[in-house]
Design a protein that fits this description.
This protein has 187 residues and is α/β, with parallel strands linked by helices. 19% of the residues lie in helices and 35% in strands. The protein starts with a helix and ends with a helix.
Amino acid sequence: MFELLSSAAADGRLTLEEHAGRAERAHAARTLGDLAELTVDLAAPGAQPIRLDGHRAVAGVLTREKRDGRWVVPASFPVAAIFGEVVLDLRDALLQSQRTVVFATVIGGQLEVIVPEGVVVTMSGRSMLSRQVVRGARGSRTEPRAAGPPRPGQPTIEIRSMTLGGKIRVTTPRRSRSRWRLGRPGR
């Protein structure tokens, strides 16, 4: 990222003021989307230092589909669980923007979304013969309907769903008590 900005300043594609401003914005960036927009006019799409995933769908049709670990979450993407199960584990994921919109279609299946503490989750949409379960760790804000506005800089996951005979479950896992006890002095 900084190498591309420096070479652009050296080539004259950026003035020193533009370079300083973009470098400052790069240091202050909170998402990959913030970083990607800094170099979009400096290199061809294939040569970008950060390549963002498109709006690739996650589909569990008569099967189980799982996204976990270190993956890039687009600003919005479709999810379908049709007589199958989809698990989106966002604990180690990299969010492209502060607000992520998941367009969920659940028909006779299950969608499970696992979010880290400090992430606001809102849910909206249509539901028939279905359940929406929201469980959060103490202090996290997971609401089945739109909550108040999030704090500045706080990531938000918005789930817009159409559910028929299925289940959407959002969880924020609690920290392990054994780790907590091990970290306490005197034990």
